[in-house]
Design a protein that fits this description.
single chain, about 110 residues, alpha+beta, 4 strands
């Protein structure tokens, strides 16, 4: 009887044991910019970002960082960061998500 009651409590109390992982957003963005790396620097600077360089071998894709954004947040950044999306030189932008480490069971 006690085991059944415990099981019912686990199932009825939200978040007691089985929590759905929340998406955590960082203060880093992947941005596709039309033009040269210098143009990406100008776009980043114009909107308060720091261009950390090209992403791997992907042409015109850059890693932007913004120091005034919360480092880890459960909601996407809004406000001044929205202006980056409206820049005519920006073709695509995505705020990066923090990936969780999942250990292996031994």
């Amino acid at each position: 009887m006690e085991a059944l009651l415990s099981l019912l409590l686990i199932l009825l109390v939200p978040g007691s044991y089985c929590q759905v992982p929340r998406t955590i957003y960082s203060n880093h963005w992947a941005v596709r910019v039309q033009g040269s790396p210098e143009e990406a620097d100008r776009v980043a600077s114009r909107h308060g970002y720091l261009n950390l360089g090209q992403i791997g071998s992907l042409e015109n894709y850059y890693h932007f960082y913004h120091s005034k954004t919360i480092k880890r947040a459960t909601i996407r950044s809004r406000g001044p960061h929205s202006f980056l999306r409206t820049d005519p030189k920006v073709e695509w932008v995505q705020q990066q998500q923090v990936k969780r480490k999942i250990g292996r069971a031994h």
